[in-house]
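Why do we bother with holo predictions? Because pocket geometry can differ from the apo form. Keep that in mind while you read this record for tryptophan.
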Amino acid sequence: MDKKVIFSGAQPSGKMTLGNYLGAIQNWTKLQDEYDCFYSVVDLHAITVPQVAKDLRANTIGLLAQYLACGLDPEKNTIFIQSHVSAHTELMWILNTMSYMGELSRMTQFKDKSQKNELNLNAGLFTYPVLMASDILLYQTDLVPVGQDQKQHLELARDLATRFNYKYSDTFKIPEPYIPKEVGRVMSLQEPIKKMSKSDENENAYILLIDDADTIKRKIKRSVTDSLGVISYNDEQAGIKNLLEIYSKLSNKTIEELVSMYEGKGYGVLKEDLSEVIIESLRPIREKYLDLLNNKDYLETVYANGANRAEKVARKTLRKVYKKVGLIERKFI
Ligand code: AMP
Ligand code: TRP
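The structure, written out:
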């Protein structure tokens, strides 16, 4: 039987955090044997907000290297750079002609971003979810691992697929969200009621996958706790709760085990031990990442092969779409 298809992507808009790892990438690595997975670095999505060309290039290669360093195997998965497969933007045009202004203006991410970018309210921000729908639909995707914040965009992809299938006949698989139960949110180290985000202005709020040992120690030491002085797991102690959750996820110890291990001990001890756990967990990822960045030829081979594989699948869907819409097939002479 054919494996089910998974598609997901992340924007090369900075470095990945421990939150991205525990909330997304670590989960992707667990899917690679059971599913036929496509993981893209979505560079075309990133340019909907202003980018500096040289940084975008570095971030794109950097994110690809981080995918691999986290354990995504380029033999088992199709790992590619979105702009290398032009079918994404071609399908987007077709879907643009079938998307309503009304439904796009209801997207909460568009509303947020348009408030923040009032002076640069480009049309790309508005049609961003249509490009995302194209990413997903080109591969006849069954499941899309995404965070809660992307569910509305996935809903749009489902609506567009259904609309197209209804108008022309069955063409696209209708994708489902895939949100694993055990994956919670990693919170900010500075304001533990907010999620850990790489776009936080305060760099002490997040841990990057590629932070070195001293940086990790410093950030954990400075993480916000409370003045109760008791290590227990509850919502009133949001800072400690978050530290315990990170500890538990990285060490395979349950929260209960940790709470009893640290009974009667101070926050300083917990922070010191947690730093070690994080440092040791991220060490292999960081080392592999630095190694990969020194091996540009290998990275090039990975994304060249990835684009070839993705292109074949994507073209097949796009050909069907063009035909159904009534576009004349190009002849080569
Ligand atoms: P973003 O960095 O917001 O583009 O998110 C990329 C992926 O990482 C999405 O699937 C998010 O749900 C996930 N993610 C980002 N931040 C966190 C976090 N603090 N905790 C858990 N998952 C996260
Ligand atoms: N919009 C997603 C985000 O910001 C990234 C993304 C683009 C994506 N295309 C996708 C995620 C297709 C899943 C599937 O996180």
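Residues 177 and 289 are 29 Å apart (CA to CA).
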